Amino acid sequence: MRELNEAATLMGLGDRSGEEMSFQPAMRAAIGAITVASAVSLANAQDVELRYLCYGDANECDVSRDLLDRFEADHGGIRITIDEVDYPHILNQLPADLETGNGPDLARVTNLGGLNEYYLDISPHVDRDYWEENYGSSLGWLRSDAEDRGIYGWLTQLTVTGPYVNKTMFDEAGVPLPGDGASWQDWADAARRVQDTLGVYAAMVMDRSGHRFAGAAISMGAAYFDDSGKPAVVDDGFRAMTEALIGWHSEGLMPDDVWPSTPGRGWKNGADMFMDGDAVLHVSGSWMIQRYAAEIGENFEWMAIPQPCGTVGCSGMPGGAAMVGFASTDYPEQVAMILDYMASEPVAREYYERTLQIPAHSGLAEDGLDYGEDIGMAASDALKVFTENFTDILPPAHALQSSPMNFAIYDASVAHISAAIAGDITLDEALANIEQDVAEASN
User: How many CB atoms lie within 10 A of CB 137?
Assistant: First the structure.
């Protein structure tokens, strides 16, 4: 825990190593006593049935269920059904349902600005000062533009992209881990040596995601936007990372059953391949810590590594997921109550600690979180690494994360880069197609 608290200090997360876990009985009682600023009378809250569409990388939906059970106990008549779905459902089916008016009351989403037209503005029902003070740095991610002052949801996590490695494989192969400041190519070469020595199926696997690709591309100099702030995706840095990704596939370092074999804009996670021992290195992000800690166990030693570097820096992508309400709900006040409850300091603290997340709440970030001693050294060290990696994120990455155009850029990137990896089109054709798709989405 000392190392984690030292890392947390880098982001102002403080040091709470001497305190007890925050979800002890006394804290549970405090949570139960919360009076939500937007509370309506119990008489008006009777017989309200709400649906929360939730995806989880690990235990996020389970922890939410526990916390919402307490909310229900203190707000008679309000019932929240959690429909747990996989992440592709959130990416693909939820927007279609919202467009046809068949969406849920709440959902956990990652296309933060892109779904803004469907959001419920809860600002009339909550204490704006509290939200602005504690979540001000991320509220803009959910807004339509700089003039939008709405409050649309609670950020359930801050994330940072980056790789994990199977350290046991490196040790067995006798290959030293590249150190701080190592380049993407340094890591590719080291993973190749492990792959060749041990006969591993893949040296590296990257989630099929334009978001994962973007951090590496920005490290190579990709700007994604011009000086006026308009999307300008294809430049020398973007081309360089695209060429590298195509090359790693053609050399057999990366598997053909993730990027090239998935159709269109479809997302695919490389976690199973990594956990099964079929990949030496997995490019993903901090949200995988809880799952890896729970599922890898003693099978092998895994670790997060410092962000690999490109020609201009060593940047990952920031990101996050948010619990949002939708304007189509029949119960806007009750939806606002739920979001205000989840965003309240004691509830948010428990959620972040139990799900091993970097907090989006600035007050909690300053006070520090206690993740507990039983999370394991690998998870503790990974939280430290991703916390440190956050400080190296380059400005274009922050600009891309806050842009409502980001998912259009991500979708175009994966669709056409995958086609080039598969050999269906040339590199130049892929880059031209990306520019065309983004231009059309901008209009």
Answer: 14
